[in-house]
User: Fold these one by one.
Assistant:
Number 1:
Amino acid sequence: MTDTLTAARLLAAAPARLGGIWLRGAGPEREAALALLTAAFDGRAVRRVPVHIDEERLCGGLNVAASLAAGHRIEQTGLLQEAAGGLLVVPMAERMSALVAGRIAQAMDAGAGFALVLLDDGGEDEAPPVALTERVGFWCEGVVSTKSVESQDNDPSRLSRAKSRDVISDGCDTSLDTLGTNGGEKVVASLANLSLALGVDSARALLFAQTAMRLHAQSHSRESTDEDLAFTARTILGPRATRIPQKADDTPPPPPEAEDEPPPGDAESEQEQHDPDALDDLILAAALASIPKDVLARIGEGRSARRATGAGGAGRKRASQLRGKPLGARPGLPRGGARLALIDTLRAAVPWQEIRRQQEAADAPKRLRIRKGDLRIRRFEERAEALTIFAVDASGSSALARLAEAKGAVELMLAQSYVKRAQVALIAFRGTSAELLLPPTRSLTRAKKVLGELPGGGGTPLALGLAAAAELAETQAARGRTPFVALLTDGKGNIDKHGQPGRAQAGEDALAAARRFAGSGTQGVVIDISARPQPEAAAIAAAMRARYLALPRADARGVEQAVSALQFGKAS
Amino acid sequence: MAFPFSAIVGQDEMKRALLISAVDPRIGGVMVFGDRGTGKSTAARALSALLPPMVAIAGCRYNCAPDEADRCPDQCGARKTAKVPVPFVDLPLGATEDRVLGALDLERALGRGEKAFEPGLLARAHRGYLYIDEINLLEDHLVDLLLDVAQSGENLVEREGLSVRHPAKFVLIGSGNPEEGELRPQLLDRFGLSVEVKTPQDIEQRIEIMRRCDAQERDGAAFAADWAEADAKIVKRIAKGKKALPKVAMPDETLQDAASLCIAVGADGLRGELTLMRAARAYAALEGAKSAERKHLRAIAPMALRHRLRRDVLDETGSTARIDRALTELFG
């Protein structure tokens, strides 16, 4: 029995208290867990939520089409009500919109009592909305991972005992009450300890862990043991970790006057050995194994996850049904936030009134005959404007080529900027400084004038260039533009952030600047057009949480197409 | 069933801010900064459940109080009154303007050709609480609109040929994690109080959280009964504070303290002083004091000013630390 399957079982036993399960990746493990859950919820409602479900279907409300046809109010029940006490499966959860996620989260908070299953097919930089992952207890792998294989050694014979299976499958929320306070204080204390060490701050996670640990112990008909704690660590607390536990770090350094005492390291480790609350190595190891490798990168996850769920970087949704400049009406049903354009609807219905009345029975009530096809909804154009910031490494021997291609790409983009409502800016960095050569503009003429003669050569102040790009992106974002940074470099900085030469320091500074860039949440791409791309540029891209493209010997058109494709979702 | 307000572990500042806003709703809402799962919505919900039921016109869609029924768009004045719980409205992320403000009643418009208004969440929140989780992710124009209504106490709808005006007085509670997106400073400034919440980094408190949540899940009724007495005390404190509020004196020294504090920390605009004054008075009333003294001012200064400081990119110290420093320098 793998962790994922065990988690699914426990979830089936106490859906309301464990919230649900987040299954990452598609694989046999996920199928097995789903099958197990579906079987366990046999007889209760099992519903699937398509990602782009509209609000009316989700929460219930007026069924516009049916009401019109019938001439009186027809309500439809929402999926969330239907799923109460059952199972709610969300395929492609990483694509879910904030609106749908917000509704589901609200229903869970209100005690809808369904178990939520998030099927996540996303890649590394995509995740389901945080509002939902926060509210599901288990974070498990859908593909068999080494972690779950390891866990098989915790005595499969016991799990397969008929008795334990009965407890699980018959179990419902009330069975928890019969548990008493097994394990008691010590267990609670060790959970508190573990969550603190892992930097798991949410009280929800703590409560999930408590319930899961009890159930896990109960399924083995025993008091809570370290094994149960380890299971919780692997499936609930570990994956949520925001820091790597370090024993010494949690204890404040001893005051300086205590220097005649034994070395602090020894004192601490001894103290921890005697401390009954101290973390067991075994549990820590279990938690460590499940800590995602990119713990640090994930700290700003809220933003990156949200960013990934949105459309491309091209100034958010461009045609909107909700806000912006009115664009006129088009046929459609007023749902999912779209508003009915009443006048246009009536205008569409009026010419048909005579014909429709003739089709109806003579004693039909006298009323306006509006059909589904008459409905018009409003459309708006959003004002968010895209901005492409080129940050170009103008140093060294390849400078001239790189600059020339960047310049070409800028001009190509500007040629279409009016259509795309996009602006372009260019920053060049060389020598000991980064310079904003072309402030954000939509004017091709201006760009041509400014970019006529660009100087090149000298050192590579990569950190400065990145910082300048990030700063420009942030100030522009504050003005309501959606910036996108295209960094053209080979990633080999040799001037640090203070303008001093030195490869090691420069590299560190560049990575730090890249991480800061990632923290700003701006989207970007790193393009390396040198003949033999080196790993440095990829490392910078990873730290920026940006895409990396190696385009050996690409020309201006190639660069422009790559940037457009990433920023606007399609090549121009 | 709501978690008893008095059973919430720690989070003293947030609880204090909520109580102050209950004593004087005009203070203008509370912004809560903090991670998910730190008990923000639990506390807000608990407070609204704690408050005694209010008298309203029975079945009125606008929660009209009997004395304001003449202004009700539904003209509900002739109807009977009833005691209803204080509303707590949870605004979902991604809510549309229609749902918040209210909109044309589609069914009546299409079915019967009537132009009727369907009240939105603002009407439902009248005289109660409007809680917005992740307010920093809400559309800016919606936040503008909400703050505007929260301040004027009235919702004016002029759209789709409708012209409706109805009272909407509520305490706005916003929450959000600033790391996931900032709220514009202009909007922040319009919140009366702001607090920062963190999960306790202390083992004992964490254990206590688990213990209490467990106790509630096992037997909600018994748990509520255990805390009923403590909750009743809080209700009494709020009621007393509300009654005493108009009588609490505001000595000149306190006003001077408030002004010099605002100058010292460099809070923009006059909202800082005004909020300091109102919050200090409400807090004094809550504490049963006859006049608002320096100690009351001190206790509420961080939450009244924290979000109004000009941000200095170079200065890494947080706003709270800067206020604390100013407090120590000024008042010792």
Note: Residues 503-520 of chain A form the longest helix (18 residues).
Number 2:
Amino acid sequence: MARYIGKRLIYMILTLALIATFTFFLMKILPGSPIASAGKLSPEQRAVVEEAYGLNDPLPVQYFNYMFNLAQGDLGISINQFKGAPVTDLILSRMGPSAQIGFQGMVLGTIIGILLGMIAALRQNTWVDYSSTLIAIIGISIPSFVFASMLQYFFGLKLEWFPVALWKDGFMSSVLPSIALAMFPLATAARFIRTEMIEVLGSDYITLAKAKGASGSEIAFKHAFRNALIPLITVLGPMTVGILTGSLVVEQIFAIPGIGEQFVKSIMVNDFSIIMGTTIFFSVFLIVVILIVDILYGIIDPRIRLSGGKSS
Amino acid sequence: MEKILQVKDLELSFNTFGGEVKAIRGVNFDLYKGETLAIVGESGSGKSVTTKSIMRLLPENSAEFKNGEILFGGRDLTKLSDKEMQKIRGKDISMIFQDPMTSLNPTMPIGRQITEPILKHQKISKAEAKKVAIDLLRLVGMPKPELRMKQYPHQFSGGQRQRIVIAISLACNPQILIADEPTTALDVTIQAQILELMKDLQKKIDTSIIFITHDLGVVANVADRVAVMYGGKIVEIGTVDEIFYNPQHPYTWGLLSSMPSLDTSDAKLYAIPGTPPDLLAPPKGDAFALRSEYALQIDMEQNPPFFKVSDTHYAATWLLHPDAPQVEPPATVVERMKKFPGSRYYEGGAVYNGR
């Protein structure tokens, strides 16, 4: 196992280097410059500023400088959004709110999604099943920002249960954005669990469990559930992506001082180092999630545990 | 002999989009204590459905009992609630399925799969249940059972998995063991081992077995009595010798003729022509009449009742009616009948025991 994880870590570093390289050159191809939007500067002043940030160096030099700093964990400093502040600090200080709504959304969505999917499968072709499917379709097809606005309108403006867009009331402020983020994992989990449960419930070992005298709930929870979870774990990765991309917009809508909000703003003002830093941060996060998913796989499915064991 | 299970006039239908499929159309048989009753027939003849209806394992929303009763221990199983059935399943009646590769839960260690029915049906501690499970594994011939308990199904071969399924089925010393084609998915050498094991175990724990198969070779090997099913009915029932050496129903003749044997000299193997009847609209008379070269006019119109051949042997064919014309069975069947005392072709000598 340790060797397996070690091998994976090396791949992770390689992947990150590739992502950093790719993003770096993409950023350089983009028109505009961080300084262009910074106000009216004379060409001489511009040249001075560009020189100060090393933007006049030849591209390969810039690239190697960047990668060298990155290897030491230095993501550079903000060029115009938070002039001079280290990007690492900016990201860390903004991580709290993002992590909170992301985590709440993911947990809420997955748990409710699994429950909905289970109930739908156990009550197949009844109104329960149809309404659960409907919720899943809505969750997949309505983008999170539309859903977020609806939540703001009904629960914020009309009912006044939660603040519309104010990050001051701690947990209360996080409820609506978490729900908005939860819709995607909820819908995904519900669909996957329903399909898989129905298939598992029709399998031979479920009939054998029945023939042993197991009751309906024992069959559903002791025998079917774990087997139905396996494909859901596969989509945990994409679900996390959904949360990440969703949070970019949702944070903007709910005025949450999170990474997503900062990311969007930094793109608008071309703050090169923040864009790079956030992209790399998101990538690290995702790659770690994928590793966790693979380890989870082994815990839930013994067949995979063993074949992974060959490399340990 | 003591009757342990009685199936009387059982009729069962599946409600499908296409209409009502009459899968079982009046099945009668008794199961005696300690015997092995084989149910043979081709796919779709209703043999699996019959046994699954005894266990009530058919989908509740589409399968429906139309008539008849299944008497076990003084109770009619068709009328029991789900809760009451759960107490019988796995304890008094247990089942072995066709495909051992899929009948074990892939994410549960086999030890827990064996102890599950024990803990469910007996007041016994987990540690004791574990001991019972280890003994069961030893009984079915699994080497190093203590180590094997923690392993998962994918770490066993097909034959070993079927041994585990057998161990599960025997966990509570059932009175009836239903084996639904338990050797069909296994290769021939493993088949033989599993059959030997089942015969051994039956002697040890004195259970009655209903053995479903379409393999007549297996029947000859394990069965005391044989019921031949066709089109949702039993068409002939008798001891294994009576069915193999004095068959009366044209369908049984067809089955026996299509079985290859060592002395079959002809290059071409006989096959019954035609296809099984459509049970959405079952034929009026004898369901086999349309495929039978021995069919009489009355076979098309009226369902034949059971005619008694001996105390243990009954067949549902109009050919046994006193007014029916004498017909000559196929040559291979006549060869068999020559060896059976009491058949009209008997030429003397002892009967070949089916085994």
Note: DSSP finds twelve helices and twelve strands in chain B.
Number 3:
Amino acid sequence: MRSIIILLAAVLIANSALAEPVGKPIPIGIAVGQTTNVALFGEEQVNGAKVAEKLLNEKGGIAGTPIKLMFQDTGGDEAGAINAFQNLISRDKVVAIVGPTLSQQAFAANPIANQAQVPVVGPSNTAKGIADIGEYVSRISAPMTLVAPNSLKRALKMNPAIKNVAVVYAQDDAFNVSETGIFQEAIKELGLNIALIQKTSVKDTDFTTQITAILGANVDMVVMSCLAADGGNMVKQLRQLGFEGTIVGGNGFNSPNMYPVCGKLCTGVIVAQAYSPKAENAENQAFAAAFKDMFKKDPAQFSAQAYTAVKVIVDALNEVQASGKDVAGMDLAELHQNLNKALVASSYETPLGEIVLDQNGEVTQKTFYVSQIKVSDDGKTGAMELLPE
Amino acid sequence: MSAFFDQYGFLMVAIVQQALLGMSLWYPLMAGQLSLASIGFYSLGGYIAAIMGTNPWFAPWREALGPAIYPLQWLIALIVSALIGLAVGIPALRLRGIYLALATIAFVQVLNVLVLITDVTGGAVGLFGIPQPFVSRLGYIWFFGPLLVLALIFSARLTRTVAGRSFMAIRDDELAAQAMGISTTFEKVRAFVIGCALAGVTGAMSAPFLNTWNARQSSFDASVACLAYVLIGGARSIWGPLLGAALLVALPEVLRPLKDARLIMNGVVLVVACIYLPQGLAGLLASLRRPGKEAGHA
Amino acid sequence: MNIALFLQNILNGLSIGAVYSIFALGYTLVFSILGIINFAHGAVFTLGAYCTYALAVGDFGLNGLLAGLSMPFRLPFPLALLGGSLIAGITGVLVERLAFRPLRAKGADALLALVSSLGVALIIVNLLQMLVGAEIYSFPSDIFGSLPMAMIVKVGGKVLAVRTVQIIILAVSMVLLVLLAWFMNRTRMGKALQATAENPETASLLGINVDRYIVSTFFISGVLGGLAGTLIGASFGLAGPYFGVSYGLKGLAVIVLGGLGSIPGAVLGGVVIGLGEAFLPPDYSSLKEAVAFIMLFFILLARPQGLLGRQTIQKV
């Protein structure tokens, strides 16, 4: 027994005493929810990250050294996110982490990485306060303040007769609650009348009660802040029950999961987007083509954001390399510090367009999009067509 | 410290933390009452600690008390949990068996929805940036470790006191216990409230441990997990909850190399453990120590 | 509340409540015979919906092992519904073999079956995700042939709107309930099942093969779960392999509310909770998930045995 303890101690001490070079290929951690009900988003993120690994390595990786993605499932809870992060930090010895999927998980796990001085890039955390967790925490997912009013303006351009508006939002989802506030202000600024406000839940699927109220109020437009599963069902039921006016959806609608839920009844819905697979910047063209090549479908926003997070890290690694250091040969802890310095206060060309990370790691996104959903007549394939400026 | 503790420090403390939740179910179960309310009190305790740790209203307290705010959080969580436990327990413990289990599940679900629509709890996002007494996750063993030791000593003593014997008498035969002059309602409520108080304190310790607190902490899955710790560990041994939590909390981590299949394997282990260890891990250990007696026929 | 809105709420409540009832019947049948809750029932519900989808639509998305595959055949929806439910029934039998029978054979603590059935649920749900991914699938709108999507009726100048799928759900549920009532009360097998549920020992003394009836119960329970899953899936889409979990929890509330082990109780419980949810004012819709449990909590306090339950000592 005693000898085992001595042996164990020896192994542990030897382990920690070693200086650790980064090594080849360069490991980047992906900690997203691949199981539990978060997997709906996590799978899309994994797909986007896989495309990033392939595409960015084809472009030469870090000065010829390829990157390798290490995936650790966070599950849907906070403890799972912490465990995944600790595995990536201590066992996989990654240079940076992309994740986790949910803001709540980020609040639990990001402090762990921050304390270990490992850079984290949040691919889909939109809650307030994420970038404030610490020096080593940044995110590429922007809150939607600009795009919501734009989508309303487009709707008005298509139908100037719109006067009365119904607002719907999922009140148990933080993102949608803040988005509807922006929508409601924009509606008032445009001189339209909010005839009624209806609250829903993201867990809900049957909206007949709300729709009865909306139909009774004789509105010309419904503005919705919901997620794909609940919002798609509500669009479907609105149309089935005879609503013929304009429907505008927030960024929660920007998901290919809309098409299976409401089928061709989605056609015509106007969507405010943080990402569009149709965006014309060169980065996105390359990404969308590679994604389509791999998965035979247009990328979802979650996929594009995961790609962007990996791309941002790779760009920053290349910056470190360009400063005259050999990334693969560097001491891991030293690289963490250098990488984080390179990450923040920089701008990046990404599929989301140009984004800027400030000194604090908070993101500013330059371009947002407004699209209209088009679903084929058999209801099997759908696309979001960009609306012209 | 070393790489091993860096990687598994959180996990090891999480085992102790979950074992405490298992123990909070173990007390009512000792009196034959199947309650799944623990996770609700865990959530409640966590919110008490998170609100006291982050809400500006408590800023003067935090400044005045320094680290002493933590024991105060535990104390308040303990008192509030015990009082609410009493209020829920007295009517609910008239129910038997699965009816009680379902009433406690209902209590937790309603609590969850109330939390979601209350402002002071941070709504859907929850509370975050909770002050940290320790730098490393492993440090939290100084919170949970002593509590576990206390709970184990308490349990061990309880099995030898009149109260503990009354609990077990009710578990074995409620009518007979009543005939022996045991006030069954009183004893059942007592066992329930002990569990609630322990879950509340565990929650108050867990909010800083997890850095954040939200309504997702008290999911149905989490409440059933607590029951699984007790049953897989062994409901009749004070060591049961700890052994069960050690196995079930570590298992998904041990199975990480299986990638996509790890939760499938986790399910397989649950089924196999139920079938082959009907007395739980504690029963298995006991039968190993007393060879000749087969596990499963204790 | 005007009369149109009142009728609307009644209809919405009955339609969703009927599905709750069918789902809950699966729980209650197993409970009546074994005195144990089958935690895998929610997973069987999900599995049934996915199997029907595979038979009726059969196109898989971009995640999981079956990514991009397409089934070589398409069954008409009613046949697929039947097929999916049968597979769910067979899964129910497997659940019994894996999680219940070994424990029964050893005479183990009945509580353990809660954990072992939970283990089986974990296996089913994650196996599903491994195969078809977590993305959303749904049935195309033409599965019901050329029926219109909805009917709009004016009542007292107000709009009363009925989705066709609501009517179909209600109709299928009614037929199913009548069939089940006939089966339980009019057939030899149904009567034997009831006798077994009443008292397994006496039943086995009377020459009833208890094991066989337990297997049949799990089969029927699985079929009911699969049917309910498909009906919900046809109405709202299959929102990932976990979409059965919240229904599973609600189903528990339904059977306890109605009275454990009572077949009319499960039906009544489902309808009461469905109506309760429908009549919740939209402003409070965030409370919708809690409606079932608030009702459950208070009804249990007033009537500890549920609405139609009998006052007996429960096993687990």
Note: Chain C has one domain: 3-302.
Number 4:
Amino acid sequence: MNTPNSDFSPNILPDEWTMILRPKRNLLDVNLHELWQYRDLIMLFVKRDFVSKFKQTILGPLWFIIQPLLTTIMFTIIFGNIAGIPTNGIPKMLFYMAGIVGWTYFSTCLNDTSQTFIKNASIFGKVYFPRLALPISVVISNLVSFVIQFVFLCFFLAYFMIRGSDVSPNILVLWIPFLVLLMAGLGLGFGIIISSLTTKYRDLTHLVSFGVSLWMYATPIIYPLSEIPEKYRLYVLANPMTPVVETFKTALLGVGQINYFHLLYSFCFTIVLLAVGIIIFNKVEKTFMDTV
Amino acid sequence: MPHVVIKLENVSKQYRLGNVGTGTLSHDLNRFFAKALGKDDPTMKVGVSNRLDTVDGRYVWALQDINLEICDGEVLGIVGKNGAGKSTLLKLMSRVTSPSTGEIKIKGRIASLLEVGTGFHPELTGKENIYLNGAILGMTKKEISSKFDEIVEFSGVKKYVDTPVKRYSSGMYVRLAFAVAAHLEPEILIVDEVLAVGDAEFQKKAIGKMQSVSRSGRTVLFVSHNLTAVEQLCTKGVLMQNGMLNMEGKVHDITSAYKQMSVDENDLRRSGTRVMEFLEYKMTGLNGKVIDEVFLGDNFLITANFKSHEQMDLCDMTLDIRNDSNEFIGHVTNADDGFEIRDITKGNIKSVSVMVKNICFSPGTYYISLWLGNSYGTFDYIENCIRFTIKQGDTFIRRPFPFDKRSKTVLQSSWSFK
């Protein structure tokens, strides 16, 4: 509109090269600034995931609640009543639901991000944007469903408290935002490493789908940590999700073990995992289109 | 003064052939050990040029040693046959994948349109998709909001903007998608064949939009097989062949070189039993001089020499004339004139000459195919072996106004008025 024969504003060129594309780049050359510039895109991806998930469903976002509820009922019947696994004196429904809500966030983050490259190959093959935008948007859109499930869990908890059950949410709930960050970080970290490797080695996609459900049994979801015999406990604690889930349940239900040293371990594990994940992802994203 | 906005230095791209995924782990290990020992990568083959039909070696160079400078405000057309490396080049510049060697330096923001509607989600409404697609192409939410009305206006789907795009007709879908892309304001725009979609009116609109992009000093890279669009739009051209830059220059030089290449090379398809075969053929004026240009209404001669490997009583020869879109426009055969080519003795070389009179096709480029055979079959058929151009001139067409290119032929006529 500035010139009569053009409806574009005039072109102003920078003096320096804005970008130099090379075959290999430095491993640590991760452009987080660019990712920040694409924050609108991340939020639009979140919106897309959310809207498209429930288009043409009758129950809509109610599915967020139905899913953990049914799983809880199933677990209560099988693990609580048939197998008779103790729950530290906490109502079985509540115990399982707290575990499931926490675990679901982690596992959906991992499952969804681990398919980043394969599922989005058609977009990635046509246009450039920071590839990390997609797994990050997945983590955020799963956070939305986590919050809904968490609120539902709180109502559930309130109901049991009114009925006089022996549960006591305590000051540890202040840790919950931090725990959520750890779950997101672990899910994202493992997810992007796996997605980077699956561009070449498809075997991993098969491993992930059942691997995550097996992993759940190695995490104190259906049993309290205190039930684990001393000689196995170290193995269960090596799982970085153990302290996270255990602290989550202790904060809400008031029964369990909390060990800050274990939490610190999970935190460090997450940081290292994320760093490694981003470096690998960053390396793969440049040429994955040739192999995917 | 023009500034160089894109600079390619020795850019090459290598692809692995065949089934990626089998044996890649061992290749990776080989590479790793070679690297660790300081040797060259054993899987990189140097000096094997890109021939898609000869698969020797498991790796292929899709691009080899590309050096190119592109200045601001230039509209560069990239032409070449399928597999010449055009799309790979665009992919490298739009950062979809990385070069294997060399460097690409870029000044300014790049937007690439390798496809229209990348990332469109069928369940989302037109409005939601405008935002999503715009953001994928690199716009911020604010930029999209400020152009939203223009985009909707340009696409012409205003009524349906709150309907999920899965309910759109394919034409509406494409128009909406292109509208978003057309309102990008990058310094460099990369476009690959997207004009192949939409109806004629929309294509015109799209080309107009790209012209106005370049007028504002922006750089456009355009790949297309539609040479008319390339000539209309581009100022400069490059011709790619087998992964290498063959030629660089003015767009008309490039397109005509490309057309010539199509005749020279493997487009020269030949079929038939070869009981009789053409040895040479030429197009001449009535004075016998070889020509490749005639004026509308002119006469010219096609002379062909052929040799027979058997005794032959009777045979026929035809000329098929096609235009540069490969449409069959005209046909000449000796049978029409009651002329007989007969009594050909074995081993003799014969020459046939045919005069085509008052050529009445609209100005443009044409190709002649030669056929030799009889009612039982084809002896020799050479497709598009003679290329020539028809120019308007003033002997036949005396109209003072330009020729309407939509018409394929011009008919001779006489007029009366009472």
Note: Chain B has two domains: 4-12+65-263, 270-391.
